[in-house]
Every structure is written in C-alpha cells, then in structure tokens.
C-alpha cells in the first residue's frame, strides 16, 4: 500500500519533471550546441585517454590490452621519474613570479594618482601580447645567445661577466633551468596585471579614504585591505597556474628540445615525445593519466587550501 | 608635534616625491620589458651588416625589402590563421553566449548539473587529451583539414568564455528582461537585443583572447596539419627555428609580419579589451 503510494508520487514527479522540461525546451535548445560539442570533443577524449593507458597502441597495427604494464614500466622509467623534479624546479618559481610580480605591478599602477597616466600604463603593460608566444620565446633565444646576446652583453657591461667569459645559457645543464625561469624578465606584462587592477578598482573609495585618514601606511593597507579582497584573483592565478605549469612544455618545444641531455625533460614533454616521436600512444596515455590524477589532486587541494566559494554568476537573477 | 605632521603632509602634496619614485620605477620596468620587443622591431629593417654592428639601437635607412621577403615566406600561414581565427571565433561567440544566457537567466531542470559539467572541464588538462584527441580527429577524417583547428575552438574553447559570460549575464538586473518580456519580447529576443549588446566589451575581450590563442598555438597544428596548412606560429617555427638562420634581420621581419595582425587588433581594440577585463572580475 505504502510502496504503491510512493510509486504513484514518484510517477507524478516524473511526469511533472517531463512537463517542466518540455516547457523549458528553449533553454535546452540554447545549451545544446555547447553540450553536444563538449561531449564529443571534450568529454570523450579524456575518457578514451584513460582507457588507452591500459593498451599498447601504435598508429598502425593492432591495439592490445596490457593491463597495468604501461604504469609498471612508467614507474621504472628513469627519464620519466627524473622529469618530475625538473618540472617542479621550473614550475614553482614561475608560479610564484606569475602571482606576485603582476600584483606588485598592479599596486604600482594603482598608486599612480593621475588617471590619464594610469590609463597609459595599463595599455603599455599589455603591449607584449601583440607578439605571439612563439615570437616572444624566439626573441628570448636571441637574448640568450652566448656570444653576443642581450643578456651576455648587459652582464659584460655591468662587469658581472668578463669580456671573454662565455656562458651557454641554454646549453649548460647548470644554467638552463635558471635561464628558463628568467625568461620574460621583468615579468610585468600581460593580462594578469589588469585582472588584479580590476580587483583593486572594485575596492570602494570610502574604504581607501578611511584607511588613509586612519594614517595607515601603504604597505599596511595592501596587507590588510587589498590582499583579502584580491584573494579571488590570487586563487584563480594559483589554480590555473598550477594546472598550466604541470603540463607546460612550450619552452622545451621551441628552445631546448628537453636538452641539454635530459636536463629540461618534463612529464608533458616526455608524453609528447613518446606519443609522436616514438609512436607509443598507449604509454604516452599512461603518462597523461598519471599527470591528470596528480593535477586533479593538487588543484582540489589548492582550491580547498585557499578557502573557495562557489562559482558566481549562475542563477542569481533568472527570468 | 601634531602641527609638524600636518606641515609635513602639506609639503608632500606640493612635491609628490612618492609619485616621482613611482613613475621612475614603472618607467624602468616597462623599459626592460619593452626593449627586447623594440629591438626585434628595428632589427627587422636592417641589413645583415648593420645588424652585426648596430643591433642595439635603430638606424636609417630602413630596409623594407626584409619585410617583403618575410611576408612572402609567411603569407600562406597568415591566411590559414585568419581563416581559423575568424571561423573559430564567430562560432565560439555564438555557442558560448547563447548557452551562457540560458545558464544565467533561464530556469530549467538540470541547469546546475549542465553548468558544472562545463566548468569541470576547466580541470581536465591538455596532456590527458592530446593523444586521444589526435586519434579522434584522425578517425573522423579531419586530418589535414582546417576544421581540425576550428572544432576545438567551438567546443573546448567555449569553456572559458562560458565561465566569463555566465558571470557577466548573471550580474545583469532581472528587471531589464522582465520589462522586455511584458512588452512581448521572446527569450531569444532578450538574448540578442538586450544581453548581447550589453556584453560587447566582454565579447571583445573573449574575441581578442581567442584570436591570440589561435595565433599562439603550434603544438596541435603541427600534429594534425601538413606544412602548407600550418598556422602562423607553427609556420614560424618551421621557417625560422633552425639554429643558424643565415639572415637575422629577415627572421625578425618574419616575427614582425607574423605579429602585425595582432598589432593592428591591439591598436583598434585595446580599449575594448581593457574595459572587458577590468569589468569582468575574473576570480574564483
């Protein structure tokens, strides 16, 4: 009797839901192109990638199931194991630089009293985006030229290096990682500065005025007022910096080829090499899967660590 | 004592030492940032010989021929890039804006689920999808077809745009749309006649971000296309990557030519871009 009743309630709910869905069909029509596209081209590949990591697959020939063999081999593979610390040595300094320096730059520009000049600085900061990333990297290859590049010339001028001293910045295993981190110095350009500025401009004028009247120093104001209000932006840069940093191998592709030796091999570059130079698609997928799990864990941790709120925007004021 | 502080403050107002230091620091930082770019610019117009001796500063006469040589070497890549950028961005703007409008302004069962489904993809790294995507596009016969670059923009490329646009639409007041609906406007009309015009700055930002992405991408184009279909960055690497490029000024001219559409875009749209970014409140 009771089961029947809950069943009928359940049935009624289903029909109600069906009616509601039918009534709102336009909304589904609106999101359909997005959702269908994402299912095929964004959801299928990662699932297929995870599956593929249990197979031996080459571009021609048969695909055979090998169980955990790829993973077993991977954790005995010294090139892969050594590429992990390399990745951290490159990623962590770049991540810190990418979060802190644009913030300092934004505060500097925000401190400019003339609004007109503020506008000029904002435009100048964006200028580097006109050069495609590859061009930027190739220009840095030029800067790192050991015989007469900009870096060597400046250091000679300053007397830091002897006139005859030659450092092969990208060819010397001791120098290559510091050089990669140094790339982009002074790191002040780009979108990040503006994202911070938008946060700063959102701080109400009264709060800033009050802080000033209370005699708060600039550093105190930044620490106590600006930083807490910019935590959303910092979290954004942290999480996407982590996700991007773990898998970035652009510098390796353009500048170093993972060299000298294996000095700049990172897991992402190793995956690329395995898949497209050695044609081990299954093994490469295992590398990708391991990185996926690591990235997921780290970004969830980072998300919790910086005390997340829900994503904003959805459904605050529906029609 | 108090008097002293006040006079000190007054003096500060007259000679803004802080402001002068601030401008100096900013100028130095921006100079260091821009100098390598400027160097690439003036070296595009030098002969081999003058590059050898005067690379650190601009000189006359300008050797325009470098640019022409470089243009002939890269024009096919540019054309490919423009096609991909145009088709990709147009589709992305439509697909992402209409979906974001539904997410932000319409009520329907499963809305939260579908939205999370889109946002969750921000956490899926490219390293996991590169190999299977390569196999997928090959299986679908999209190899060596510019669609192999356009489809990823229409799908995965939309994710970040949806993130930005849903936040933006979510902030628009409801009354705006209610009034229109009372006047008999359909939801689709609310979307294209009210929401879209209001979101022009943020759409401009998304457009620029997307075009810059197309310009910058080289790993995926190198994988799925043959050389004559490469986009700009992949083409540049192909043409100028060899360690001992014989003619440095022509190489720099190549960089300049490859950047020129972005430079134009920047000159005309930087206001839009900055407005959109500053208004977007990108945070988590």
Radius of gyration of chain B: 25 Å
SSE run of chain A: HHEEHHHHHHHHHHHHH
Helical amount among residues of chain B, as a percent range? Answer: over 70%
What structural category arises from helix and sheet content of chain B? Answer: mainly alpha
Mean pLDDT of chain A: 87
What do we call the CATH topology of the domain at 72-129 and 185-305 in chain A? Answer: MetI-like fold
Largest interface: A-B, 106 and 111 residues
CATH architecture of the largest domain in chain B: Orthogonal Bundle
Query: How would you describe the oligomerization state of the chains in this entry?
Result: heterodimer
Which CATH class of the largest domain in chain B is shown? Mainly Alpha
The CATH topology of the largest domain in chain B, please? MetI-like fold
* Percent in strands of chain A: under 5%
CATH superfamily of the largest domain in chain B: MetI-like
Low-confidence blocks of residues of chain A: 308-318
Give the total of domains of chain B: 2
Report what the structure shows:
The complex is a heterodimer of chains A (319) and B (284). Chain A is mainly α and 319 residues long. Chain A has helices at 2-23, 25-52, 69-74, 78-111, 115-126, 133-143, 150-157, 176-182, 191-201, 205-213, 218-229, 231-247, 250-256, 267-277, 281-305; strands spanning 55-56, 64-65. A two-stranded antiparallel ribbon of chain A has the order 1-2. The model of chain A is unreliable at 308-318 (pLDDT under 50). Chain B is an all-alpha fold and 284 residues long. Chain B has helices at 2-14, 17-43, 48-54, 65-105, 111-120, 126-139, 147-154, 158-170, 174-182, 187-198, 200-216, 219-224, 232-240, 248-280. Chain B starts with a helix and ends with a helix. The mean pLDDT of chain B is 85. Classes of the chains: A mainly alpha (319), B mainly alpha (284). At the A-B interface, helix 1, helix 2, helix 4, helix 5 and helix 6 of A face helix 2, helix 4, helix 5, helix 6 and helix 7 of B.
């Amino acid at each position: 009797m009771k089961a029947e009743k809950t069943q009928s309630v359940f049935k009624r709910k289903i029909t109600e839901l069906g009616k509601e869905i039918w009534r709102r069909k336009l909304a589904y029509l609106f999101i359909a192109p997005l959702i269908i596209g994402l299912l095929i081209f964004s959801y299928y590949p990662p699932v297929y990638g995870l599956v593929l990591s249990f197979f031996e697959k080459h571009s021609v020939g048969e695909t055979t199931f090998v169980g955990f063999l790829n993973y077993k081999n991977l954790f005995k593979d010294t090139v892969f194991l050594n590429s992990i610390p390399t990745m951290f040595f490159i990623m962590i300094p770049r991540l810190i630089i990418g979060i802190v320096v644009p913030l300092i730059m934004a505060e500097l520009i925000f401190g400019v009293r003339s609004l007109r000049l503020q506008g000029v600085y904002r435009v100048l900061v964006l200028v580097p985006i006109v050069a495609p990333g590859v061009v930027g990297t190739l220009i840095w290859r030029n800067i790192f030229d050991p015989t007469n590049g900009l870096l060597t010339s400046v250091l000679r001028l300053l007397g830091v290096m002897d006139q005859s001293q030659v450092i092969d910045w990208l060819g010397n295993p001791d120098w290559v990682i510091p050089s990669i981190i140094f790339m982009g110095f002074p790191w002040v350009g780009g979108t990040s500065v503006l994202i911070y500025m938008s946060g700063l401009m959102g701080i109400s004028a009264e709060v800033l005025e009050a802080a000033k009247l209370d005699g708060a120093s600039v550093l105190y104001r930044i620490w106590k007022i600006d930083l807490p209000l910019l935590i959303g932006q910092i979290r954004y840069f942290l999480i996407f910096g982590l996700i991007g940093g773990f898998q970035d191998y652009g510098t390796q592709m353009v500048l170093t080829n993972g060299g000298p030796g294996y000095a700049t091999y990172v897991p992402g570059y190793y995956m690329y090499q395995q898949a497209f130079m050695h044609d081990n698609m299954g093994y490469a997928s295992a590398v990708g899967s391991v990185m996926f799990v690591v990235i997921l864990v780290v970004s969830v941790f980072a998300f919790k660590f910086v005390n997340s709120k829900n994503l904003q925007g959805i459904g605050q004021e529906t029609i | 004592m108090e008097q002293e502080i006040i006079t000190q403050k007054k003096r500060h107002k007259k000679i803004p030492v802080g402001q002068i230091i601030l401008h100096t620091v900013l100028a130095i930082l921006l100079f260091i940032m821009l100098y390598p770019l400027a160097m690439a610019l003036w070296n595009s117009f030098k002969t081999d010989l003058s590059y050898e001796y005067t690379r650190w500063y601009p000189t006359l006469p300008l050797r325009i021929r470098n640019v022409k040589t470089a243009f002939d070497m890269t024009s096919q890549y540019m054309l490919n890039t423009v096609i991909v950028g145009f088709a990709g961005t147009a589709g992305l703007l439509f697909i992402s804006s209409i979906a974001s409008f539904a997410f932000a302004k319409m009520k329907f069962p499963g809305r939260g689920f579908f939205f999370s489904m889109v946002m969750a993809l921000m956490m899926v790294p490219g390293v996991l999808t590169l190999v299977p995507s390569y196999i997928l596009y090959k299986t679908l016969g999209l190899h060596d077809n510019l669609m192999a670059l356009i489809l990823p923009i229409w799908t995965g490329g939309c994710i970040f745009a949806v993130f930005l646009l849903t936040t933006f639409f979510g902030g628009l007041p409801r009354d705006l749309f209610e009034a229109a609906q009372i006047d008999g406007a359909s939801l689709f009309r609310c979307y294209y006649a009210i929401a879209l015009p209001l979101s022009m700055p943020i759409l401009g930002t998304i457009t620029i971000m997307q075009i810059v992405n197309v310009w910058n991408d080289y790993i995926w184009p190198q994988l799925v296309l043959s050389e004559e279909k490469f986009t700009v960055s992949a083409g540049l690497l192909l043409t100028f990557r060899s360690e001992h490029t014989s003619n440095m000024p022509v190489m720099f001219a190549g960089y300049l030519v490859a950047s020129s559409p972005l430079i134009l875009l920047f000159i005309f749209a930087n206001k839009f871009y900055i407005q959109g970014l500053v208004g977007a409140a990108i945070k988590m």
